[in-house]
Structures are given as structure tokens and as C-alpha cells.
Amino acid sequence: MKNTGIMLIAGLLIGAMLTVPSAHAQMGISNDGLEFPDGSVQTTAAASQALYAIGDTGPAGGLVFHVTDDGLHGLEAAPVDQSSAAWGCNGTNIVGANAVALGKGARNTDDILHGCEDISIAAAVADGYVSPSGYYDWYLPSKDELNKMYTELHLNGLGGFTFANYWSSSEVTVSIAWVQFFLSGFQLGNFKNSPERVRAVRAF
Question: What does pTM read for this prediction?
Fold first, then answer.
């Protein structure tokens, strides 16, 4: 009887642990599913069967702005801005952080965090965000991901964005990175030491 009680408690603890949101940082979206830093891929078959559309509340409580696999996977933006911050490390070339395409923001963010030790920069702010539901695998969007947020969310009155510049994780030169002006939609290079708005995103 004593052993049975111990096994029951152990089973409950294991079950509770399985409900905790994954801390497995998502690095992008492949044709087969979500690609993680260690090279593993979460396939469509292994994913949740919930279907999402643009503008829906995502699995982490953000706003969905891009979907793949008929809505099984995609990208969601945090429901609010995190703060204003500099892109950081002005004058330093961050190797690998110049990708602009969809699905590249997480890798850019990882490269920035490894190449710049300042903990107050935009990439660190996005990386440190924890959603109210407990998810903490967020990152600074790439140039194209940021533009998707503008066209799919902001232009449809979603997301509560301000009419300001938002940082992408895409570097241009040692002193310039891409921003998007959420009043006009223009994307342009801006000095890395300029404090601009930060809105984190994540893949699901």
C-alpha cells in the first residue's frame, strides 16, 4: 500500500511536468515543421491539431500573423510591446545576424546574444519576454517577419502597435540595422544605438 501511494504521487508529478510550456527555443519553420537549435524538427504529425488563422490568439497568447501547414504552424507576436531599446553593439559586426527572411528571426537573435554582451539591447529584451501563459521562447523578428506583423496585424487594427519605429533582428552594417516605421510601413536602416520599440515573436 505504501509503495502504491509513492507511485501515485510520482505519476502526478510527472504529469504536472509535462504540462509546462516547452523551453525548447524555436529557430524557424521548415517545410516539415518547426526547426530547433539542435537540428531536430517537430513535424506536423507531432504538433497540436489546433488550427490557427491570421489574427487569432496563438498558443502562447500572442497574435497570429503568419500560418503554414493550413494553420497548424506559424508565427505569433506578443500582445504588447516589451519596451524601447537600442539594437546594440554599435560598431560591431554580428556574424550571422543579417538574415531577413521569414523563419530567420530566432537565429538572428541567437547570433546577436552570442555576439553582444549588453543585456539591455533589443534582442535581449525580446529573448527575456515571458508571456502571461508562461511561454519564454520569444525572439526579435527578422526584417520580413516584422513586415508581416505590420501588414497582417497593424494594418488591420490589431496588436496595439504605436506609430513608431520597431527593431528587426536583421543587421545591415556594423552600425546600422533594419527598422520598420509603423506609421508609413517603410523599412529603413537605422543606427544601432537608437532606442526603438521592441515586439517579440515566436514560432508554434
Answer: 0.78
